Amino acid sequence: MNFHIMTLFPEMIEQGLGTSILGRARDKGLISFDAVNIRDYSGDEKHHKVDDYTYGGGAGMLMQAQPIYDCYRAIMAGIEQKSGSADADKKVRLIYVTPQGRTFDQQMAMDFAGESDLIFLCGHYEGVDERVLEEIATDYVSIGDYVLTGGELPAMVMIDAIARLVPGVLNNDESAMTESFHNNLLEYPQYSRPEEWMGKKVPPILLSGDHKKVDEWRLEQSIARTKERRPDLYEKYMLENPPKPEKKKRRKKKAAPSDSDNLKAPEADNKENT
Ligand code: ADE
Fold first, then answer.
1. 98 lines ligand 1 (CB under 6 A)
2. Which of 124, 73, 75 is nearest to 98 (CA)?
3. What is the number of H-type helices and E-type strands within the chain?
4. Which ligand 1 atom is the nearest neighbour of the CA of 98?
């Protein structure tokens, strides 16, 4: 999977994403990062200016449309060339990273992880000229209801969450499935050696070797933890996993029909069966 990041600070992206698990995945060729400096597409050869005052007044500068558009066209040309003409019409999603967007979550990460290329546009200053957004943005995404100084950190947060879902990026494929937010549940508590630390013992069930019981215990813990810490998620979980109705107790076999039973109208019996 290829991540293309349009930014004024490419070094931030390279430093942020080039280490640890994502750096290793990149070395293995599972993912790639291409941080493209919007300033390289400035029409202003002398000062490489990419921002200007806002029409209608107001504080701050706005990122201009043309450098962003030219940067985008260059990225698209690279993608089209790499994927060949067969895929040329395929729409590549461009995520404008903005506090005005939909709030990023695990479901969105999974959705984006299905793409082969993703483009991120990181804003700065007071934002971006609306016209270029109308032209190129397919998704407006925020990482939460607070305002940061630029889009690079949010883009890196999203890229990390998406990239780790790419097959092979995590060593243990399973770990992407069992952890927090899978099935709207938070992850259960986990313990490692020693068996007792500061007087606190590891729950005995985890030492029992009974895998079925351990799984049941973990699910119970996940549910309880989600209910306590994230009642919003718990509600979703309960809607998707309603408690199974208790099995009805078997009624005792009826005694042989009495004479009065035999007098019941036949239509009534039929109705009950419809
Ligand atoms: N840019 C500035 N703040 C942001 C946020 N909270 N989410 C996404 N992009 C941003």
1. yes
2. 124
3. 10, 9
4. 9
